[in-house]
Amino acid sequence: MIRHELDVPTRGKGFTRLDPMINRWLTGTGIGEGALHLTCLHTSASLTINENADPRVLEDLANWMDRVVPRDHPYRHRDEGPDDMPAHIRTALTAQTMTLSLARGQLWLGTWQALYLWEHRDAPHQRRIACQLIGEQDSAAQQATQLNEDILKRHDPEAWARDGGVETEVDLMVDRLHDITSD
């Protein structure tokens, strides 16, 4: 399992698209197939999968939520302002966690789907998303890992000194292979 934490700046109330950011991170993991579990580490923001082509869908969703959870209700909890308790309710009605499939090292989403962080507070915030990735490395990554392990098993740190400190073509090749497979 690979753990990671995304830091996501929001512009205040609204949607921040996450799938491009997550796919960039996934590319570096070497995992080809698997599952990614996400947890929004906040009580006033949530995760959603929704339409990625027509922005009116997100506007309609936000307008619907405004009607269902009005700001002007006499909530008892208003410690951080009039958007505080409505943000908590909106989070309770949506999702703070989700598990998504991976295919070919990327999120497996439909053509018109995107993953969003839904900020329920008015002001911009820095939000954190916990990521737990479980899966199999793609074959190239598996081969690179195996090659690196084989090189390390045969590595003799004293060989260079015994050769009088002269780097041979084999030394340079082993160094380069080690660099490539360690990335």
What keywords describe this structure?
183 residues, alpha+beta, Jelly Rolls, 2 domains, five-stranded antiparallel β-sheet, three-stranded antiparallel β-sheet, 8 strands, 31% strand
Can you give a write-up of this model?
The protein has 6 helices and 8 strands. 14% of the residues are buried. It is α+β, with helices and mostly antiparallel strands and 183 residues long. The radius of gyration is 24 Å and the shape is elongated. It has 2 domains: 2-137, YjbQ-like (Jelly Rolls, Sandwich), CATH 2.60.120; 140-182, no CATH class. It has helices at 19-27, 55-68, 84-93, 139-154, 159-162, 169-182, and strands spanning 2-9, 14-17, 31-40, 45-51, 97-103, 106-107, 113-119, 126-137.
How many alpha or pi helices? 6
Largest sheet: 5 strands, antiparallel
User: Could you give me the name of the CATH homologous superfamily of the largest domain?
Assistant: YjbQ-like
Going by CATH, the architecture of the largest domain would be Sandwich
How many domains? The number is: 2
| β-strand number | 8
| Spatial arrangement of strands, main beta sheet | 1-8-3-5-6
Q: Could you tell me the mean pLDDT?
A: 89
Elements, N to C (H/E):
EEHEEHHEEEEHHH
CATH class of the largest domain: Mainly Beta
Radius of gyration: 24 Å
Specify the overall morphology.
Answer: elongated
Straight-line N-to-C gap: 18 Å
Strand content: 25-35%
Given as residue ranges, the uncertain stretches (5+ residues, pLDDT < 50) are none
